[in-house]
Design a protein that fits this description.
Elements: H1 2-29, H2 37-48, E1 58-59, E2 62-63, H3 68-81, H4 85-108, H5 125-134, H6 137-153, H7 157-168, H8 178-188, H9 191-215, H10 217-224, H11 244-247, H12 250-272, H13 279-287, E3 288-290, E4 296-298, H14 301-306, H15 316-332, H16 349-355, H17 360-374, H18 381-400, H19 411-417
Helix pairs in contact: 1-4, 2-3, 3-4, 4-5, 4-6, 6-7, 7-9, 8-15, 9-10, 12-15, 15-18, 16-17, 17-18
């Protein structure tokens, strides 16, 4: 086992080098597809021109619907590239490699995947397209999110929350990981630490949104953090098999939200907190302490805030599992997934598949089924139902999979296992 694990850094470095070559060839020879870039630049031009009313920041594809971090990020990109597509593609090619490097680092810090399966992270046609041929803001948001996850692996909570909040400020889908991140924080920090880290995240949002909050606060909050948007049925990749009248209905949205919350609670209680006796037991243990006689006693507010968790260090596999599975649950329950949304969870797919107890052949079949579904354009009844079924099978596999230890094993037990 140890020899195989030692190969991973070398394999990761080799994959990065090969993908650098592939990215260069894509930028040089594959035609760019105009979708949102002009709209982004129009919205940035309005912002740089002094407009602070979110209802008046618009582009070819409609009004601006992203938080303020998006404007700062794409203003910087416009400054560097002059608003031209080709240099922006080079910039996004660098971003792609940076993101892949972070992901490979995360994978090499866990023992879930065999070394050869790291190659799956470089095999998506759609992901290469999203980065280099579409220049979507999802790429920036997910790179910051993956950076936050890498920081959480080392339990640099405050820096992780700053990076996480930066990702949210570019695109709100990152909030799908918020419940998982909060649970990990409750396991690995005192309540005082949790509040401090959350305050850092909130401060990032306030500072980035300040110009808009001071001038037109209602417009900014309603547009940048609109949770009730209804997407167009035609662009849905995951629920194209659902009739359009059902797809756009409020009942369908509420049902998906209820399922989402139920799944999060079930996974949090029966899997992510099983070692602690369940979610309620985990929370109760932080509100009370045992005295010498073994009985629970109440504690003061100061003790409550300063009380450190019993096991402060979390295992890296547990951290990645909770973050990736929590995000995947949100993706499965999303009312509409557009093509660029594949970047929200593609990089977690190999990890999730190898967490399931399925045989390797079935894992690879599911990986190919998901990838093919995302590469059929436009999506249709069959492609969307294949994707939906693949998602459900993976989710079921994650539910029945063996539960990893949330805390690092002792060194002697690790050596015995190797």
């Amino acid at each position: 086992m140890g020899g195989h694990e030692a190969r991973k850094p070398a394999v990761a470095a080799g994959l990065l080098l090969l993908d650098v070559i592939l990215v260069s060839l894509i930028i040089a020879y594959v035609p760019y597809t105009k979708i949102d870039w002009d709209a982004y630049m129009s919205q940035v031009d309005g912002f740089l021109g002094g407009e602070r009313d979110y209802t008046k920041l618009k582009g070819d594809t409609g009004p601006l619907v992203y938080p303020a971090g998006f404007l700062y990020a794409y203003s910087a990109i416009q400054f560097v590239t002059g608003g031209q597509v080709y240099p922006a593609q080079i910039l996004f090619g660098i971003l792609y490699i940076l993101n892949l490097g972070i992901i490979l680092y995360i994978y090499t810090r866990t023992d879930v995947l065999p070394w050869w399966a790291l190659g799956l992270l470089c095999l998506s046609k759609r992901i290469h397209s999203i980065f280099m041929l579409r220049l979507f803001n999802d790429c920036l948001a997910m790179t910051l999110l993956h950076g936050a996850l890498a920081l959480v692996l080392h339990q640099k909570w405050h820096l992780a929350l700053i990076s996480f909040s930066g990702a949210v400020s570019i695109k709100m889908n990152v909030l799908l990981c918020a419940p998982s991140l909060l649970l990990l924080m409750l396991k690995g920090m005192s309540f005082k630490g949790v509040l401090s880290a959350l305050s850092c995240a909130a401060l990032v949002q306030i500072l980035l949104g300040l110009p808009f909050l001071l001038s037109h606060p209602a417009a900014y909050i309603s547009r940048a953090f609109d949770l009730g948007r209804v997407f167009i049925h035609f662009w849905s990749v995951n629920f194209k098999f659902v009739p359009e009248d059902v797809f756009i209905s409020r009942k369908f949205a509420i049902a998906l939200l209820a399922i989402h919350l139920m799944l999060l609670i079930l996974f949090a209680h029966y899997r992510w907190s099983k070692h602690e006796g369940g979610l309620l037991q985990l929370l109760c243990s932080r509100f009370s302490q045992k005295d010498l006689g073994g009985f629970l006693r109440s504690i003061s507010l100061n003790q409550f805030l300063s009380c450190e968790p019993k096991h402060k260090i979390l295992s890296k596999e547990h951290i990645v599992t909770v973050m990736f599975v929590g995000n995947f649950i949100g993706v499965v329950c999303a009312r509409s997934l557009h093509y660029q949304f594949y970047s929200w969870y593609f990089y977690s797919l190999p990890f999730l598949l190898w967490k399931t107890p399925f045989p390797t052949l079935l894992r690879l079949i599911l990986f190919v089924a998901v990838e093919l579904s995302w590469n059929i354009y436009p999506s249709n009844f069959y492609s969307s139902i294949i994707l939906f079924c693949a998602h459900l099978i993976i989710l079921w596999g994650l539910w029945i999979a063996p539960i990893e230890s949330p805390y690092p094993r002792r060194k002697h037990s690790q050596k015995k296992r190797d």
